[in-house]
Amino acid sequence: MAGLAHYVFFTLHDSSPEAIDALVNDCNHYLDGHDGCTSFLVGRRTPDLLRPVNDQTFHVSLQVTYESREAHDVYQTHPRHLEFIEKNKPTWAQVRVFDSNL
Questions:
Q1: Most Cβ neighbours (<10 Å): which of 20, 23, 48, 84?
Q2: Number of domains, the chain
Q3: How far is the CA of 72 from the CAs of 3, 44, 67, 91, in angstroms?
Q4: pLDDT in tens, 18-33
């Protein structure tokens, strides 16, 4: 079975370094280490990459790959994932999710 890539781009209401750090820390705490996860990366937008093709509208990116669609689906309803959403959703101005089969 093919894997699944899950990319999430967060735009925050508060773009301060402290707010961005808080979201990155919560991503690491709540979203890493789930069963079936084959890679986990979270980071801040690189502000000095200003080519016309660079999207400047997000603050934090999350890139997670799963061994299967089933592993991804379990993650989506896992209590730690749901707690992350509940805690952080008020801080989000926009969230964009891109999922793709690998």
A1: 23
A2: 1
A3: 9, 23, 8, 24
A4: 999 999 999 999 999 9
